[in-house]
Amino acid sequence: MRKSNSFKKFLVCIIMFSFFVGRFAIKKSKEVEAAELTAGLIDNRDEVTIVPKHEPTGDVRKFLGIWMTSGYSLQPQANAYTIEGTPITLYTDAGRSFLTTILTFTSWQHYQWYESSDGKKWSSVSDKKGGDKRNLTVTPTEVGVKYYQLRTAWYMLFGPTIFDPQVWSQVATVHALDSDVDVTDLKVTTDDDYIYNLKNDITTTSTYARADIEPKDFTGTVKWSIDKPEIATIDEDTGLIEVLLVEKLRLLP
After folding, report:
1. Phi, psi torsion values for 82, nearest 5 degrees
2. Kind and range of the H or E element at 242?
């Protein structure tokens, strides 16, 4: 009888041991599959890693309306979506810090766009295609992606040289789709809570409105308007809000 009970206990132990080993094996199998899937996603991501023409300068930093750093107050869209054969415009705006403005006040802005099909090898966009303009309009001829980056430099006649101030935008990826994608949600924000209405060389009298749109791959175009034109104006394409200056406000009835 004791041998029978011992055998039953031994059998139960074997069954329990087999159960836990089986669960462990299944868990490890899932972990391996998940690891393989993650590795695949990383590999796929690495295949489209973008190497900019030049390290982006970043956004401008302001304090009390004063530009403390040179940079972009309006970056080209990081991801812009359109459909094959439909033009899309990348809007930008860059400026110098107040100190750089003082030191290079006689120079003016020059623009050069660069483009890439693989995100690694870059070539300049010709002036004929608008490569020397602040804003670049492109018309994709086929479904796919293309990358763009802008250099803004300040110099007089010859340059840019290592002594001339210049800033580089973030890389803009233009996605050409085969069909339109509609907007489902839109939220509006502004870069600044208030702006000044006194014009001078170091403070700004403008800010930008931003649209946070869902889904991110919508293919429409945002057009801006303002309900207080007696106080400020807004650029319908870029969302640039400019307050009317004091002397102009005085002329209003």
Report:
1. -150, -175
2. strand 240-243
User: What's the predicted TM-score (pTM) here?
Assistant: 0.73
Measured torsion, CA atoms of residues 229, 64, 208, 72, in degrees rounded to the nearest 10: 140
Reported as a pLDDT band with limits 50, 70 and 90, residue 106 is: confident
Distance CA 190, CA 11 (A): 72
- Give the number of other Cβ atoms within 10 Å of residue 203's Cβ: 15
Q: What is the pLDDT of residue 207?
A: 87
The Cα–Cα gap between 96 and 202 comes to: 10
Rounded distance, CA 185 to CA 213, Å?
Answer: 6
* 15-33 core/surface letters (b: 16 or more CB in 10 A; e: else): eeeeeeeeeeeeeeeeeee
Q: How far is CA 127 from its chain centroid?
A: 24
**3-state DSSP assignment of residue 88:** strand
